[in-house]
Design brief:
single chain; 303 residues; alpha/beta; seven-stranded mixed β-sheet; 15% strand; globular
C-alpha cells in the first residue's frame, strides 16, 4: 500500500537533465526533487537514457542511509522523450516506466545516437566553413556528458563571442532555415510508440498544444497512434490554459487514453519554469503515476 502522504505530494513525469538539454545533473535532480517535496519524477531526456542509472542508483543509495528520511526520497521513473516527425512537424513521444536496459531497446537507441553524431559532425563542418572553427570534440569537451543539441551550439557560439544572444545563434546559424542547420534523421511517432511498448513502457503523446495543430489535425494524429499502441496523453502541462487542459482531457477520454503530466523542467534553460509546479499552477497527483503503473502488467504480458 502506498502511504496516503504520497497523494498529497506532487510528482513530475517530464524532466530533463544535463544528459540532454537540462542544466541539472541526474543526481542534482534527485536532490532538487527532495527539496521540492516531490513523491516521484520521471527523467525523460531527449532520445537518451544515459542519466537513468545515475539518478536511480543515487536515490537508492540515499534510501540506505540512516541519516536520511527515506520517505522523502522520490521515486525515479525511467523515461525518455523521443523526437519524431509527422507530416513535416516535430512530435514528441514520452516513454515512461520502460525497461531501459532491454537489449533490443538499447540497440535501437544506439542506432539513433549514431545518426545524431553523424549530423553533429556535419553541422560542425558547416560552422567551420562559415568562419566559426568548432569540432564535435570541442562541443563534447565544453559540455561533458550531454547529448549535444542545437541549444548547446547556441550556447557555445554565445560564450565564444560569435553571437550576441542565443536567438541570434539560431537565426544566423543553427535555426531550421539557417545555413549551418542539418536536419536529424527522425523516427515516426508510430515507431517511437512501438519501441516504448517493446521495452515494456507506457507511450505518451507529449504537450500536444505545442505543435500548433488545429483541433481536427491533432485528433487525426491521436486517432492514427491509438491503433499502434499509444496509451496516454500529457493532459497536465506547464503552459496549458484552462481550455487546452480541458481539450486534452476530452481527447484522452474519447480515445480511452490515460492521463499523464509534467513540467518539462530544463533548469536554467527554461527560466521561470520549476520542477513539480511549472510556472506555479501545475500539480500532478501521485494517483496519475499509480494508474500508469497499474497498466504495466498488461503491456508486458503482450511482449
Amino acid at each position: 500500500m502506498k502511504s496516503m502522504d504520497l497523494h498529497l505530494r506532487p510528482i513530475d513525469l517530464h524532466v530533463h537533465s544535463t544528459c540532454s538539454d537540462g542544466t541539472f545533473s541526474p543526481r542534482e535532480l534527485v536532490d532538487y526533487a527532495i527539496k521540492k517535496g516531490l513523491a516521484a519524477f520521471a527523467l525523460t531526456d531527449h532520445d537518451t537514457v544515459d542519466g537513468l542509472e545515475a539518478a536511480i542508483s543515487y536515490a537508492e543509495n540515499l534510501r540506505r542511509r540512516e541519516d536520511v528520511d527515506t520517505g522523502q526520497i522520490p521515486e525515479v521513473v525511467p523515461g525518455i522523450e523521443f523526437s519524431t516527425e509527422y507530416q513535416g512537424s516535430d512530435i514528441h513521444i514520452l516513454g515512461l516506466c520502460m525497461d531501459f536496459r532491454q537489449p533490443a531497446f538499447c540497440q535501437a537507441l544506439r542506432a539513433f545516437v549514431d545518426s545524431r553524431e553523424h549530423r553533429n559532425h556535419k553541422m560542425c563542418r558547416l560552422l567551420t566553413q562559415a568562419g566559426i572553427p568548432v569540432s564535435y570534440e570541442d562541443l563534447l569537451s565544453e559540455y561533458p556528458d550531454a547529448v549535444i543539441t542545437r541549444a548547446h551550439y547556441a550556447a557555445y557560439l554565445l560564450s565564444h563571442g560569435y553571437v550576441g544572444s542565443r536567438a541570434e545563434a539560431f537565426a544566423r546559424y543553427v535555426g531550421d532555415h539557417a545555413p549551418c542547420f542539418v536536419p536529424r534523421e527522425k523516427v515516426t511517432p508510430a515507431q517511437a510508440v512501438e519501441l516504448i511498448l517493446q521495452a515494456g513502457g507506457i507511450p505518451v503523446l507529449a504537450h500536444p498544444t505545442l505543435y500548433h495543430f488545429s483541433d481536427a489535425r491533432l485528433e487525426e494524429l491521436i486517432a492514427s497512434l491509438v491503433p499502434k499502441g499509444l496509451m496516454a496523453i500529457e493532459t497536465i502541462y506547464s503552459t496549458y490554459n484552462a481550455r487546452e487542459e480541458r481539450l486534452m482531457r476530452q481527447l484522452a477520454s474519447r480515445y480511452h487514453l490515460f492521463a499523464s503530466g509534467g513540467s518539462d523542467f530544463h533548469g536554467a534553460n527554461k527560466p521561470g519554469l520549476d520542477m513539480g509546479c511549472g510556472y506555479g499552477r501545475l500539480f500532478v497527483s501521485y494517483a496519475v503515476l499509480e494508474t500508469l503503473q497499474a497498466a504495466l502488467p498488461v503491456v508486458r504480458a503482450c511482449l
